[in-house]
Design a protein that fits this description.
Length: 260
């Protein structure tokens, strides 16, 4: 009995110490792309923050990093074509643009007019480009009966995609119009599930940080993205995207996208 009482005392003491321990950091709260419930680029939290900030628009805050990450996920920046001039790029090869507009994957084939609507909504220069020629785009998109579908292929787990905003410049339109040019440079990281795949250096680093923070790996990645610590990793993909905001219409479109 004495041994049992002693064991109970030890357990109570340990639980008391645990309760009084320093609280572990929590990952910053982040909405998932579907929870943002936005229909256009201009209505994302990131773009609204740029519009509403009168000063220090070039200052990257933890909140802006989170908002950019969510916008880049919601609009599938990992599939955004590389281009400087939309009309020229589409004339040379429209396949990557059609592929991009087919995300998120739809249950039914997508009518061609919806593809054009999405291109017009997303890209600067759509109105100036020649009429879009609808056709089969091979590995990018299948075309049949006036509708598009994606070729059968796997896709990444988009919750494992992280976009760390590293540079932000906000400038007035060079033509003096009521537009704002937003120059964003971000590093794109992807962390494989170490319970499924052999971990690489990035996954091992993240897991070590997560253990120290007392968080699971993806929650730790959100935390480290917000405070900028993901920059300690070697860049996987660096993307520079230029967005144009129309102040009057409260809309935003993509002017160019380059992989550095």
């Amino acid at each position: 009995m004495k041994k049992l009482a002693l064991l109970l005392c030890v357990l109570l003491a340990l639980s008391s110490l645990t309760a009084c321990a320093t609280p572990q950091p929590e990952a910053p709260p982040q909405e998932t792309p579907t929870e943002q419930n936005t229909n256009s680029l201009g209505q994302t939290a990131f773009m609204q923050a740029i519009l509403q900030s009168a000063e220090n628009q070039d200052n990257i805050t933890p909140e802006l990093r989170q908002q950019y990450n969510l916008m880049a996920r919601e609009f599938y920046f990992c599939y955004l074509p590389e281009f400087n001039d939309y009309a020229q790029a589409v004339e040379a090869d429209a396949g990557p643009f059609v592929f991009y507009t087919l995300w998120p994957v739809q249950e039914n084939p997508v009518p061609q007019y919806e593809i054009e609507q999405k291109l017009a909504e997303l890209f600067v220069g759509f109105e100036q480009a020649p009429p879009f020629v609808h056709q089969d785009f091979g590995r990018y998109a299948c075309y049949e009966n006036g509708c598009y579908t994606l070729p059968p292929e796997g896709c990444p787990d988009f919750k494992r995609e992280f976009y760390l905003l590293t540079s932000l410049e906000v400038k007035p339109a060079p033509d003096g119009s009521d537009q704002i040019y937003v120059f964003c440079t971000a590093t794109n990281y992807y962390f494989n599930d170490i319970e499924v795949y052999e971990p690489g250096p990035d996954e091992l680093w993240l897991h070590e940080q997560a253990t120290a923070l007392g968080l699971d790996d993806l929650e730790a990645a959100k935390y480290l993205l917000a405070d900028g610590s993901l920059s300690e990793l070697e860049p996987q993909i660096v993307i520079q995207t230029v967005l144009v905001i129309d102040n009057q219409e409260q809309t935003a479109k993509i002017l160019s996208n380059n992989y550095l």
